[in-house]
Amino acid sequence: MTRRGAALGAFVMAAAFLTGAAHGQEERDAPDAGAASVGAVLQGLDKVTARISTFEAPFDVAVRFGSLVIQARACHKAPPTEAPESTAFLEIDETFETGRPRDVFTGWIFASSPAVSALEHPVYDVWVVDCMKASNAASDSSG
Prior knowledge:
The longest helix has 27 residues, at about 5-30. By secondary structure, the protein is an alpha+beta fold. The chain has a four-stranded antiparallel beta sheet with strand order 3-4-5-6, with no helix packed on it. The chain has a three-stranded antiparallel beta sheet with strand order 2-1-7. A hairpin with a 2-residue loop joins strand 3 and strand 4. The chain is about 25% helix and about 40% strand. It has two helices and seven strands, in the order H-E-E-E-E-E-E-E-H. The protein has two domains: about 1-30; about 35-140, no CATH class.
């Protein structure tokens, strides 16, 4: 690596760190920034039947979609002043008749570009639509 490449790499890392720190400060200062999201709204495609299903995945609750078991661990939505983007950290396992789950995907999925980090499965596709809001979850369960 050349000196110029090393300097450019250090500059990019510093800029990313400073941008992330500023973004984290905005999230802490914004009202309802951390408490607003209680899960992820996902869509799944069954490639065999060509059906698309929309379903909610509350944090740390196993949700089934076909033979997949999906757990949302985090969901972040960009504030209205930034470009629209929702990202979710998902853990996806596949269960078989034997009852032993197989780890299929673990990572962040981006709503605006799901192909960046995608579930690669021969039968199912899963992507993020939005983050669940606490007010929606509370009103759904009360009525």
